[in-house]
Amino acid sequence: MKKLFWVFLIGFWGVMCLGARYSFASQVDILLQKLVDKDILTPGEASQIRTETEEEAKVEAAKGKTPGLPDWVRNIKLKGDFRLRYQYKHDKADNNVASDTSVGRVRVRVGLESKINEKIMAGIGIATNSGGDPRSTNITFGDKNGGYSSKMDVRLDYAYAKYLPFSWLTVEGGKMPLGDVLWEPTDLVWDTDITPEGGIFGLEKGLGSKATVFLKTGPLFGTADTSSNSDPVMLYLVQPGASYKFNDRVSLKGTFSLYDWTNVAGTAFPTDSWYKSSNTKNGSAWAYNYQVVSPAFEATIQEPLKALGLNVESLKLFGEYVNNTAVSDKNTGYAFGFQLGHAKIEKWGDWQFKYIYAMLEKDAVLDTTPDSDRYSGKTGMRSHEGAFTFGLAKNTFLGVDIYRSWNINGISRKAPETLVQVDWNMKF
Amino acid sequence: MRFFTRLGVLASVFIGLAVPCFAEKIVVEGSTTVLPISQRAAEVFMDSHAGADISVRGGGSGVGIASLIDGTTDIANASRAMKDTEVQKAVDKGRTPKANVVAMDGICVIVNPSNGVSALTKKQIKDIYTGRVSNWKDVGGSDAKIVVISRDSSSGTFEAFGELALDKEKVRADALLQASNQAVASTVAQTPDAIGYVGLGYVAPSVKALDVDGVKASRETVLNGRYPISRPLFMYTNGQPRGLAKEFVDFILSAEGQKIVEEEGFVGLK
Predict the structure, then answer these.
(1) Measured between alpha carbons, how far is A371 from A377 in angstroms, rounded to an integer?
(2) Using the beta-carbon criterion (under 8 Å), do B23 and A219 form an inter-chain contact?
(3) What pLDDT digit, counting tens, does each position of B120-164 carry?
(4) Staple partner for B63: which of A87, A91, A221, B59, CB 3.0–4.6 Å?
């Protein structure tokens, strides 16, 4: 109790002497030394109090410089990026007529997230968008949303609220960033620009210091329930997964996902220009439902070439498989590949190379969700993708992404497509 | 109706998986120097606290502090005090960094007991380790080539010695690298003209610890900050630690926790 009194007294001095931080420090030193000399404090306790008091004084001094804004304003995090793209595409249609196009594109995304209180967060983001395309935030220069005839469109990209009642539980609702909804090692099934709508429960629990298990589950809306004659298209997602860290260099993550799209069969498909129909159709409607199971994994190895004397930061090996259990034909797909180089591109000289081989049969997944760059986002294709990214400066990087894809639906000419994208990306 | 049936199934699955997961989880991230203390303490703590889940990872002091500022870690391990700019950034984001000193790090410079040199200045130590001085006669000893022993670059002690004694300059290329404090002490004990550095807890009678800038290395001089190659080790929290974070910090400051600190080669506060 006596010790507590002295600690309190020194702390009180600390607050009183904030305006004279350094002279205060020497006075505290003298006082602490006397307490050590009198065996009231051990030298270690004195050192602990001295250092902690100095640190507290730094915090109080910093608080004095901060205007009295509400916490939720001070807790706002802003983020965004700006990307310029040159895109070349060469393709051959089924009638063997070749087409070459070269376009410039721009993408701007801005988002903010605020911690409303200790357990609730909310975020919104806006992005450039052309015609409501859910799989792309690009606008092509001179296209209908740009050029000399109009200004470019900006739309709400996401808006969500997140409730974190416990450290292991997250409940989220709204139009959500894809990474909040599910984990995927490649964009075989889900284009990363998609922001699903609905609600998600997220559960994550560490098992010791090496293993973590997690679960994402919830209902997501495909269409609205606005007609009494038909039920809406819904996706029920269940994605259990686990990660394991074998040591400081090697870790493994895996999931087994169930994407249960209901009421798709008989629903009219979109007539928008962004929609590239490739599933089996029955007139103007989809023919089947999509109950997709999908195991996926990603192995990460830090410094994989250390034994060869090469300083490469990390190697990722990944793969995923999909099977639509609702149909029996042309219902599978897979992707596998690797990523070598820096885990993140943050500064000059950072680099990354990625290769993915992907194959999706006609009805393996719903044709509104796969990566929109891989064979224009269609199913019924196979594709090689090679991407190289190089850091130009802090938060600025250059990327070259090349796809070579073919139709696999039994058409004799295979309708090959080559897509080259050169990107200059700036993150903030 | 089908919607609600499926929603019910999902909720059941979720609740079923959630029930065993009521354990509180905290993340401890940051300094690789503090990492061995945190890891062992977490293991011992979790053994005696069923349901407690403490995830410990390294990354460096700067990474841990940045995560504390961003709110992605509960405890930031740091082998240095937060910089004023970091404190300001934290406060601007609504955080209140609370420094919890959990141990002291004192690094002793050792030589073979047969060596006539008993004291060096920090500058002399830096000159020896960076290659500017290579003979004992240049620092008051006999005419003999200095055999420089260092820890390997993955060690926290190597990092600390580089910061505190060498002003972050590189260790000379011909230094013999050893994988542990014990290996350094053994090599110095068996090599008459060797110089090495070890944590205070590894100074044995088989080696001689040098005074640095006129200060003898001891628990007391490390704890009162007079010994020049010493520093406090921190676990920063956002405000006063609460819940599992508080229990964990309290455990490290307890007699059992401080024993772990000493066993890992650092200087305990008690």
Answers:
(1) 5
(2) no
(3) 999 999 999 999 999 999 999 999 999 999 988 767 778 889 888
(4) B59
For residue range A251-272, list pLDDT tens digits in order: 999 999 999 999 999 898 988 8
Domain B106-223 fold: D-Maltodextrin-Binding Protein; domain 2 (3.40.190)
CB within 8 Å: A168 and B21: yes
Q: Is there a contact between A40 and B218 (Cβ–Cβ < 8 Å)? A: no
Which of B3, B25, B82 is opposite residue A168, by nearest beta carbon?
Answer: B25
Q: How many whole angstroms separate alpha carbon A57 and alpha carbon A21?
A: 7
Helix (H) or strand (E) holding A233: none
Question: Are residues A62 and B84, on separate chains, in Cβ contact within 8 Å?
Answer: yes
Question: What residue spans in chain B does CATH classification 3.40.190.10 cover?
Answer: 22-104+230-263, 106-223
Asked if the C-beta of A215 comes within 8 angstroms of chain B's C-beta atoms, the answer is: yes
A-interface mutation test, from B9, B43, B88, B248, most A Cβ less than 10 A away: B88
- pLDDT, greater one: A227 or A152: A152
pLDDT of residue A155: 94
Interface test with B, best of A39, A164, A201, A263 (most B CBs within 10 A): A201
What whole-number distance in Å separates Cα of residue B54 and Cα of residue B52? 6
Domain range A71-427, CATH class: mainly beta
Over residues A91-116, the mean pLDDT reads 88
Residues of chain A contacting residue B53, judged by C-beta atoms under 8 Å apart: 205-208
Query: Given CB atoms, is A226 within the 8 Å cutoff of chain B?
Result: no
Predicted pLDDT of residue B160: 81
Inspect the interface and report whether the beta carbons of A63 and B25 lie closer than 8 Å.
no
Residues B224 and B137: beta-carbon distance below 8 Å: no
> Which residues, in sequence order, are CB contacts of A38 under 8 Å at separation 6+?
none
Band of the pLDDT at B168, cuts 50, 70, 90?
Answer: confident
Domain ranges of chain A: 2-64, 71-427
Across all residues in chain B, what is the average pLDDT? Answer: 86
> Cβ(A109)–Cβ(A129) under 8 Å?
no
Of all residues in chain B, the one with the smallest CA distance to A206 is B53
Higher pLDDT, A339 or A1: A339
DSSP B172: P
| Number of Cβ pairs < 8 A linking chain A and chain B | 139
Q: Structurally, what CATH architecture does the domain formed by B22-104+230-263 represent? A: 3-Layer(aba) Sandwich (3.40)
CB contact set of B50 (below 8 Å; sequence gap of 6+): none
User: Which residues on chain B are in Cβ contact (under 8 Å) with A78?
Assistant: none
